Amino acid sequence: MKIGIISFGVFLMTWGFLQAEPQTIEMDIEGMTCSACSAIIKKKLSPLCSEVSVDHKSGHGSCTYESEKVTQDQILDVVSSAGYKATLEEPEPAQ
Ligand SMILES: [Cu+2]
User: Fold this and answer.
1) Could you tell me the pTM of the whole model?
2) In the sheet where 60-66 sits, what is the strand order?
3) Burial of 27 per CB tally in 10 Å (0-12, 13-18, 19+)
4) What's the 42 CA to ligand 1 centre distance in angstroms?
5) Candidate from 10-14, 17-21, 77-81 with smallest mean pLDDT
6) Mean residue pLDDT across the chain
7) CA 10, 63, 70, 81 torsion-angle sign
8) CA end-to-end span of the chain
9) 10 CA distance to ligand 1 centroid (A)?
10) Of 20, 22, 75, 79, whose CB has the highest number of CB atoms within 10 Å?
11) Alpha carbon of 72 to ligand 1 centroid (Å)
12) Phi then psi for 48, rounded to 5 degrees?
């Protein structure tokens, strides 16, 4: 019985994941000076993104989001509302 409930839960999670079509956005973020800055941005983005990574040294941020619920503009807006300037990083062309 327990196993049945667990596998049903796994099924639901997998289903939700397949429906969501997660996308990843890569950003250049200006204005970060220390790890507190990247922590603030991470915290602000966490409600929108399933995975967030921000590095104040490289000025790079990336976040994984569900394209049906969140737009790239919303993510950039959240970063600028925190006081930093985010621009989309164009993916490097494959060589
Ligand atoms: Cu800082």
Assistant:
1) 0.74
2) 49-55, 60-66, 22-30, 85-88
3) buried
4) 12
5) 17-21
6) 89
7) positive
8) 52
9) 39
10) 79
11) 24
12) -95, -25
| 81 alpha carbon – ligand 1 mean position (Å) | 15
Position 74, amino acid: Q
At 4, is the pLDDT very low, low, confident or very high (cuts 50, 70, 90)? confident
Answer yes or no: is pLDDT of 9 > 80. no
Question: What residue type is assigned to position 90 of the chain?
Answer: E
Residue 63 and residue 52 in contact, taking contact as beta carbons nearer than 8 Å:
yes
Q: Kindly report, residue by residue over 35-81, the tens digit of the pLDDT.
A: 999 999 999 999 999 999 999 999 999 999 998 899 999 999 999 99
pLDDT at 19: 63
Domains and their CATH numbers in the chain = 21-88 (3.30.70.100)
Alpha-carbon torsion angle 80, 64, 93, 58, nearest 10: 50
| Percent share of the chain, pLDDT over 70 | 88
Q: What would the two tokens of residue 60 be? A: 């790079």
